[in-house]
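Usage example:
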Amino acid sequence: MLNDFPLTLKKLNLKITPKRLAILEILMKESVYLSPGEVWKKMKKRFKRIGLPTVYRNLEELSEGNIISEVTHPNRQLYYYFCQNRSHHHHFICLSCRKVEDINFCGLNELEKEVTKKIKGKLLSHIMQVNGFCRHCLNKKEKYFDS
Amino acid sequence: MLNDFPLTLKKLNLKITPKRLAILEILMKESVYLSPGEVWKKMKKRFKRIGLPTVYRNLEELSEGNIISEVTHPNRQLYYYFCQNRSHHHHFICLSCRKVEDINFCGLNELEKEVTKKIKGKLLSHIMQVNGFCRHCLNKKEKYFDS
DNA sequence: TAATTAAATAGAAATAATTTTCATTTAAAT
DNA sequence: ATTTAAATGAAAATTATTTCTATTTAATTA
Ligand SMILES: [Zn+2]
Ligand SMILES: [Zn+2]
Ligand SMILES: [Zn+2]
Ligand SMILES: [Zn+2]
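Running the assembly step on the lines above writes:
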């Protein structure tokens, strides 16, 4: 079940709390990557008591559980994105409007080979991300880079 | 000339200051990635007056000029590395001892194709990095993750 | 259903990396 | 030597992120 969030949380041994579900729902409905602070703002509309650390913690847990993905932004701030595509893949992110698109290319096999054969080390994780302007933003006069 | 730093700086329209040269020299002699604070500590041994912002600024400029490369660390702190290899390539970084090794694989062509053909956007930059344990650290009992 | 327990949370405070500001110094062009 | 724009130091500010701890809650058990 793609968006059976309670089941998803159960599988990760995370309790099914209204706030966890809301965070997931917020990210799922959003078509762009969001910062923890932005998720928090949206959460405050739904819950009268909601702490920013709760948002940070949940986003981190969900990211660790591979439910959401972390965006590696040039400004080095945290952003998260919920992607429906459950298979291993990477992203193009628009630096202007924050849209995310899937990149159907990953050199993981080649990287694995290099690391094991040549470097003789252990690959723990890899980052691949393409930053740019999406089709729409390419045609806009003013590029905006909001943090 | 590979390490003609004055020439390198001139090409980038950066003034040839003793501190710039020292920062480059420090990074070049180091076999691991360093944080700005760590570079600063080493600079303080050479200059009695040296500000941390100067180190930050210089590292950023040198990185922009592609003289040194920024490390995308999982802890999201800044680290820099001077790599002799002047051609476009990517890195394996050891999360334990901080060693950096070149990865002779890059999907840039494929990424370009995806971005222009499928996404119809503009590729501004891309990140590819492999994080892991190097051969040496794989055999150590204790992994250490110093910030 | 009530009791139990460990996980989750709020709120306040702390942390610490990074950036900004601005007065002074310096590299390099004239 | 003079000039000028770039580079720098020191102090202060910023601000994203994390830590701490008392309280609440989800989920398990009796
Ligand atoms: Zn866009
Ligand atoms: Zn995706
Ligand atoms: Zn190592
Ligand atoms: Zn390299």
